[in-house]
């Protein structure tokens, strides 16, 4: 079986769930961006489908907020939409490893026809301003048609296909678009190798597709695996792709808008600044490769998948937090870190800058090992700044609990380790010199000292059993809707009773 990875059937399913709001008459210049930004602050945000965009024909649409809540993430991943964030984390445990293993069986199926071929325009007639690409933020350097974009490149030696989300700004009155892939990204490594061998690199970019493809394009999938195959493994079906007429690179057969052509090391144009996922505008305009577009393909009534970043929560901060957390936890398990209880890459820090890991401590040095590994494992290495390690009685998703542990179990002079010259980014607001994008990161060990586990002061709170029983007995009191009781107050049966009440974590005596 193969599936076309179709944004339209995705939209129909989301609409059926009651998760879609339609917006008519907004302007591409800032209005779509501002409405979307306000939407991300709703709890939960809707998926917004903009139509009748000022200056554009009806049917030329922009979608935002596609994967910014648990229900739509679940639907996109083929999981139960009734799951909440904690349930999704549980459902995703172990999945990234399985997708990785299964990916070779899900290389995409190449077909010769598909909706993306409904309109094909040759290079000299290309005009990207025929699509309602928004100017998202007030100080952006231009109109970004590529935010939820999937940029397709290949390895000149092995032919391995990479799909990465690298933002694309419209250039030269719509004739071209720049591709902004940061140093260290796999797509960039591939096109640099093409430059060295052939002086130019083939490239293709899709601006609208099933958000599942964005999830993989925008996530650090191991560089031995094609993201198309990985996406196939995620849904258990091969994807359908059509080969581009000029470069032969594969595009989703049901993509909405695709450009195909070449980039060259000497064909660069200034792009940016752009409101970034850190919550700041990144840098000043700088030269990046501009595509020499030879073909434009688009469906009738095309839809741009818009995922503008900005101060979190932004369009994809929820998606990133969820996927990163699952991938980091899987990497830790794969390399053999013992007794990892949970990982959460906090949305408020863009799903990268702050990662919290909880463990059941087993030996002296275990908590530091966890911290160092998280700080440098491939899924977290780019632009992490803080790793906090907590004991298993602390919920890594709950910042109040995490900060309580930091302020009561971390002795600053002993328990904060600094790692220097790590993989930073040009988008870092603290970066002094964009030419050397290192960063520094801190591992904050907020676990009770291992040697004092048995004697560390007891936590002054009722035991989980007592809380559960009391809430059950006094259910009318606690069911009063005027004073809602957060679910997190009622501990699940999984919480270790003894650890919670006494400050003692079960130790593995074999160690
Ligand atoms: C919506 C979205 C936009 C992104 N924009 C950029 C970008 O402009 N430049 C960049 O280098 N990475 C960007 N990223 C992050 C990369 O897509 C991510 O690191 C991904 O793993 C890159 O693919 P690669 O690992 O195959 O290089 C973005 C991610 C998302 C989800």
Structural write-up:
It is a single chain. A 6-stranded antiparallel beta sheet has the order 6-18-15-12-8-9. It has a 5-stranded mixed beta sheet with strand order 20-21-22-24-23. Strands 1, 5, 13 and 14 form a 4-stranded mixed beta sheet that branches. The protein has 511 residues and is α/β, with parallel strands linked by helices. The C terminus is likely disordered. β8 and β9 form a beta hairpin. The protein is built from 15 helices and 24 strands. The chain binds flavin mononucleotide (FMN). Flavin mononucleotide binds next to β9 and α6.
User: What small molecules does the structure contain?
Assistant: flavin mononucleotide
> Over the alpha carbons, how many angstroms does the gyration radius reach?
24 Å
Which runs of at least 5 residues are low in confidence (pLDDT < 50)? 495-511
**Count of folded domains:** 2
How far apart lie the N and C ends? 49 Å
Q: Helical residue percent?
A: 25-40%
**What global shape is seen?**
globular
CATH superfamily membership of the largest domain? Electron Transport, Fmn-binding Protein, Chain A
CATH topology of the largest domain: Pnp Oxidase, Chain A
How would you state the average pLDDT, rounded? 93
How many strands, which pairing sense, and closed or not: the largest β-sheet?
6 strands, antiparallel
Which structural class matches the secondary elements? alpha/beta
């Amino acid at each position: 079986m193969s599936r076309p990875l179709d944004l339209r059937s995705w939209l129909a399913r989301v609409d059926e769930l009651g998760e879609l709001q339609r917006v008519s008459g907004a302007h591409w210049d800032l209005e779509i961006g501002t409405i979307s930004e306000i939407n991300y602050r709703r709890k939960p945000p809707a998926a917004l489908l903009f139509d009748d965009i000022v200056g554009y024909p009806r049917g030329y649409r922009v979608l935002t907020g596609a994967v910014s809540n648990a229900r739509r993430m679940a639907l996109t991943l083929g999981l139960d939409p009734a799951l909440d964030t904690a349930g999704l984390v549980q459902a995703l445990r172990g999945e990234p490893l399985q997708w990785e293993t299964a990916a070779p069986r899900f290389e995409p199926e190449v077909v010769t026809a598909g909706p993306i071929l409904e309109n094909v325009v040759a290079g000299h007639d290309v005009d990207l301003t025929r699509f309602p690409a928004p100017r998202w933020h007030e100080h952006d350097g231009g109109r970004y048609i590529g935010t939820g974009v999937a940029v397709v490149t290949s390895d000149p030696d092995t032919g391995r296909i990479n799909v990465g989300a690298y933002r694309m700004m419209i250039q030269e009155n719509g004739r071209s678009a720049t591709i902004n892939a940061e140093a260290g990204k796999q797509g960039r490594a591939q096109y640099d190798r093409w430059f060295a061998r052939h002086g130019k690199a083939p490239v293709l970019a899709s601006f609208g597709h099933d958000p599942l493809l964005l999830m993989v394009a925008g996530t650090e999938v191991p560089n031995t695996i094609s993201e198309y195959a990985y996406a196939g493994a995620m849904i258990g079906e091969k994807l359908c792709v059509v080969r581009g007429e000029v470069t032969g690179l594969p595009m989703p057969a049901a993509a909405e808008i695709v450009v195909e052509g070449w980039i060259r090391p000497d064909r660069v144009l200034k792009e940016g600044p752009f409101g970034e996922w850190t919550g700041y505008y990144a840098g000043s305009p700088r030269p990046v490769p501009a595509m020499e577009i030879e073909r434009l393909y688009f469906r009738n009534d095309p839809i741009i998948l818009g995922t503008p970043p900005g101060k979190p929560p932004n369009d994809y901060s929820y998606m990133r937090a969820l996927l990163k957390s699952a991938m980091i936890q899987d990497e830790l398990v794969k390399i053999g870190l013992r007794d990892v209880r949970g990982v959460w890459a906090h949305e408020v820090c863009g799903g990268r800058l702050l990662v919290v890991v909880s463990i059941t401590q087993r030996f002296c040095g275990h908590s530091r090992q966890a911290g160092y590994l998280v700080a440098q494992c491939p899924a977290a290495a780019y632009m992490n700044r803080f790793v906090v390690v907590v004991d298993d009685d602390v919920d890594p998703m709950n910042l109040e609990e995490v900060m309580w542990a930091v302020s009561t179990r971390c002795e600053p002079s002993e328990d904060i380790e600094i790692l220097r010259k790590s993989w930073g980014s040009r988008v870092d607001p603290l970066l002094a010199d964009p030419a050397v994008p290192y960063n520094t990161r801190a591992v904050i060990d907020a676990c009770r000292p291992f040697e004092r586990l048995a004697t560390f002061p007891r936590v002054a709170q009722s035991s989980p059993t007592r809380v559960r029983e009391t809430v059950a007995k006094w259910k009318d009191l606690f069911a009063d809707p005027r004073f809602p009781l957060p679910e997190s107050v009622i501990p699940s049966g999984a919480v270790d009773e003894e650890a919670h009440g006494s400050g003692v974590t079960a130790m593995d005596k074999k160690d």
